[in-house]
Amino acid sequence: MDIKEEIQKANRLIAQELVQIGNFGLLLLWCILHFLVSIWYFLLEIAHVVESYIMSSGLMKNYKALDFGKLRYLGIVVGSEEASQTSKVIELLQWLEAIGVKHVCLYDTEGVLKKSKEAILEKMNNAIVFQEAVENDKLLDQKHMMLEFASFSDGKEAVAKAANLLFVKSLTSKNSSGDQEDEIFTEPHMTEALRAVGSGGPEPDLLLVYGPARCHQGYPAWRIPYTEIVELW
């Protein structure tokens, strides 16, 4: 009986050791994989930095062969700190104009770019504001660069204003006609209402996001359902 118990005890010890060895092996494998993935992303980061430096220094001209005719509208999201650097924003816009981009929406959360609008337009002699282009029927004008300035207030706050506008119009219509049937609002109704409150810009084909946060930072979500988003940091 004692010999049998000793054998069982030995088997249990062996099993425990095997489990510990297996756990150690899995942990070691996870650490190796984590290390390899970290190295891979580190190398990708270095490659992106080097590529950006080469392009900004003018050593690589490949971007000149790109067809920007398909880029009808470009959205740019910047942090409030970067938005306060007006000279760099102007330099970016001048570069975009030089390569043929004609429609740009500048967005920052706190509306810093909106406050710098006059200074930016003063330096961008060939630029007009999107709202003015709509009013003057110049949306198809390819001679000027159209700029739109947006902030967080053009997001949920704009939707609330547009919804309130639709409600007031619907209520006024019911009171005047006596028709008590519920009105169904469609996407075109909302688009028109957003334009009426000054937040009805087009959908960007491409959205560039500058900053460490991997999100659109409150850029109006209904304007980017099919937009390609590229994060730059």
From TrEMBL:
Subcellular localization(s) per the UniProt record: Endoplasmic reticulum membrane
InterPro entries documented for this protein: Nus1/NgBR, UPP_synth-like_sf
E.C. designation(s): 2.5.1.87
Transmembrane segments: 21-43
GO cellular component: dehydrodolichyl diphosphate synthase complex; endoplasmic reticulum membrane
Top-level lineage group: Eukaryota
Keyword annotations: Endoplasmic reticulum, Magnesium, Membrane, Transferase, Transmembrane, Transmembrane helix
Enzyme type, top EC level: transferase
Single Gene Ontology MF annotation: ditrans,polycis-polyprenyl diphosphate synthase [(2E,6E)-farnesyl diphosphate specific] activity
Cofactor(s) essential for the protein: Mg(2+)
Pathway per the UniProt entry: Protein modification; protein glycosylation
Alphabetized SUPFAM superfamilies for the sequence: Undecaprenyl diphosphate synthase
Chemical reaction(s) catalysed: n isopentenyl diphosphate + (2E,6E)-farnesyl diphosphate = a di-trans,poly-cis-polyprenyl diphosphate + n diphosphate
Similarity remark: Belongs to the UPP synthase family.
Protein name: ditrans,polycis-polyprenyl diphosphate synthase [(2E,6E)-farnesyldiphosphate specific]
